[in-house]
Amino acid sequence: MTTHKIQILARKLDIIMGVVSMKTSEINEDILKIFSNYNHAHHSFVDIWQQMILFTPRWWLGFILSTLPWVLWWKFHNPTYTGDLLRAGFFMAILALTLDSIGLQFGLWIYPYNMFPFITGYLPWDLTLLPVSIMVMIEILPQWSPIVKGFIYAILASFVGEPIAIALDLYKPIHWNSPYSFPIYILLFLLSNKVAKSKKFNSRF
Fold it and tell me: Model pTM?
């Protein structure tokens, strides 16, 4: 390759690197603007939450729903299965938080009376009601088929739990309907039941 060709190639490379650098700088500026707007919106949300939601009757209802089911479950569950059930409950909580966060990000639903403004999702639902109810469902009637119990659980969660939450103004679907939740709850139950009873975890069931 001649010196002239090398110089031309070097100039082209400089131009390409300059364009890439400029695009990277523009992308960084756009991202900073987006995060700045998000930060401003979040601060506004926190102010509204403190003034209009914190310590209201529905906030206290959320607090009770976050704590009482765990207390009752701990008091009445069979201690023989504590480890297996807790493993399933924590697994369910992680999935619920993840799916809830995705739904909120896509604007499928909102929670008008969230417990905390810093955590996406409705904590009483994700960290208490769903995990505790699934642990109870796994423990009772162990001779029943998991698929049958999954259908029953999905019916209760989709067509009883969600409508009650809507009636209490704790949950507001926007681009979502309870029938959409039905197959998801079946899958969540079957996965959680598998985690609880898997021999890989020395299950006692």
Answer: 0.81
User: Rounded CA gap, 53 and 46, in Å?
Assistant: 10
- pLDDT score of 38: 65
CA neighbor of 97 nearest in space, from 117, 124, 121: 121
Can you tell me the distance from the alpha carbon of 92 to that of 153, in angstroms, rounded to the nearest whole number?
Answer: 13
Q: How far apart are CA 104 and CA 110, in angstroms?
A: 6
Report, as ranges of residue numbers, the positions in the chain whose pLDDT lies below 70. 1-28, 30, 35, 38, 42, 200-202
Q: What is the pLDDT of residues 48-60, one digit of tens each?
A: 889 999 999 999 9
CA distance linking residue 83 with residue 94, whole number of Å? 17
Are 149 and 189 in contact, with CB atoms under 8 Å apart?
A: yes
Half-sphere exposure of 63 (CA within 13 A, CB side): 8
What are the DSSP calls for 118-142, one per residue? TSSS-HIIIIIIHHHHHHHHHHSST
Q: How far apart, in whole angstroms, are the C-alpha atoms of residue 131 and residue 15?
A: 57
Quick check: 59 and 53 in contact, CB under 8 A?
A: yes
Q: What is the pLDDT of residue 32?
A: 75
In the chain, which residue ranges form alpha helices assigned H by DSSP? 3-52, 57-76, 82-105, 123, 130-139, 146-156, 162-167, 178-197
